[in-house]
Specification:
The chain contains 9 helices and 13 strands. The protein is α/β, with parallel strands linked by helices. It folds into 2 domains: 12-93, 2-Layer Sandwich (Alpha-Beta Plaits); 100-265, Rossmann fold (3-Layer(aba) Sandwich), CATH 3.40.50. Strands 5-6-13-7-12-11-8 form a 7-stranded mixed beta sheet, with helices on both faces. The protein has a 4-stranded antiparallel beta sheet with strand order 2-3-1-4, with helices on both faces. Strands 9-10 form a two-stranded antiparallel sheet. Strand 5 (101-102) and strand 6 (109-113) form a beta hairpin. The chain is elongated. Residues 16-86 form the ACT domain.
């Protein structure tokens, strides 16, 4: 007898976000029933903003999605905001129940506050998992959680982190790496203040070598880092801002007043 072959139907993931226009009992059930009738599976659902829900769904073809969109547009209880292949921000919004704030003018700048450290760590971990060169800058005042978040994200991304310059436990200024540290899977962390104010030319030669590696580099205080180097903010793929609260102003007055720093100026694990 010929061997029986079972074909597994492949489905594509989509992101659906809608705004509730008329909230009433059973609304989510109606949406779920509609998806079921169209043979579209729900992967995850969550509130992503006040009055909005986001869903990751699985559909077998684009025609299913067009039918879904057509039906949803006839409903007066909801308004479709997004129906597309999911982006990283969509996946994280459903996972955490809130959207990452993005600068309206500078699309590569993302903003977080301290009570969103879980979301920040998840976001950076996803960036760290991507292959090839990536230069990420992170701004924030002392002891807001920058280094803590970078290290936690490295762990989540299964990356080995290396401090090229740092004030984590004691001031670190590396002038060379050992052979196995030149690894594209490593994550290199540079403190822009320490490198700019304390380092010698050997350190900067090392920084330039690391910048040429097809690996992820994270620079704390990127604005200070670019002041006296050949690098510019345009070289950064992402800029992350971390504040204690949304209204906090990130200022570098202390940097302008002092040319040299002690460890106590910028010490602490979560600098």
């Amino acid at each position: 007898m010929p061997e029986e072959v079972f074909l597994v139907e492949e489905k594509t993931e989509w992101y659906l976000e809608y705004e509730i226009q008329k909230n009433r009992p059973g609304l989510l059930g109606d949406i779920s029933s509609l998806l079921g009738m169209l043979s579209i599976n729900i992967v995850t659902i969550n509130g992503v903003d006040e009055g909005r829900r986001g869903l990751l769904i699985l559909a077998k073809d684009h025609e299913q999605i067009e039918r879904l969109k057509s039906i949803l547009n006839t409903m007066d209880t909801i308004k479709v905001i997004k129906l597309r292949e999911p982006k990283l921000r969509d996946r994280l919004a459903v996972r955490h129940g809130r959207y990452i704030q993005r600068d309206a003018d500078d699309k590569k700048t993302f903003r977080f506050v301290r009570d969103e450290l879980g979301l920040l760590v998840d976001f950076m971990a996803e960036l760290f998992k991507q292959e090839g060169h990536k230069l990420i800058g992170i701004r924030g005042m002392p002891r807001v959680g920058k280094t803590e978040s970078i290290v936690a994200s490295s762990v989540c991304a299964n990356k080995r982190w290396l401090f090229v310059s740092s004030t984590l436990l004691k001031q670190t200024i590396r002038n060379q790496l050992i052979e196995d540290e030149y690894n594209e899977n490593n994550l290199f962390i540079i403190d822009g203040i320490v490198s700019t104010r304390r380092a010698n030319e050997r350190h900067w030669q090392l920084v330039r070598e690391i910048m040429r590696l097809p690996a992820v580099k994270v620079v704390e205080h990127p604005d200070i880092f670019v002041q006296n180097t050949e690098y510019t903010l345009n070289d950064f793929d992402y800029i992350i801002e971390l504040r204690h609260d949304p209204d906090e102003e990130i200022k570098y007055d202390i940097v302008e007043k002092n040319n040299m720093f002690s460890e106590s100026d910028f010490g602490g694990f979560d600098f």
